[in-house]
Specification:
This protein is 26% helix and 14% strand. The protein is built from three helices and two strands.
């Protein structure tokens, strides 16, 4: 059986929430692509964006904001 995924050379961000249905082991995350930001949050779960919106959006800004590791991944409008 082959791999279920392949390594991608696009900056990845990992956000782990303690009450998520399933968190991927960090050893597996490292095989998916170049991780440029990773954080384990103290609270939140499956609906983290709804439960912890400020923390969730802050994590996105730290990845995609101007001058951040994945700032140039998307086109600016």
């Amino acid at each position: 059986m082959g791999a279920l995924y392949q390594y991608i050379n696009i900056p990845l961000g990992i956000a782990e929430f303690p009450k998520a249905i399933a968190n991927v082991p960090s050893s597996w995350c490292k095989t998916m692509g170049p991780i440029v930001i990773a954080k384990t949050f103290g609270k939140g779960g499956h609906f983290a964006a709804w439960e912890r919106p400020h923390e969730f959006v802050g994590h996105l800004y730290k990845m995609f904001g101007d001058g951040e590791p994945a700032a140039n991944v998307t086109q600016k409008k």
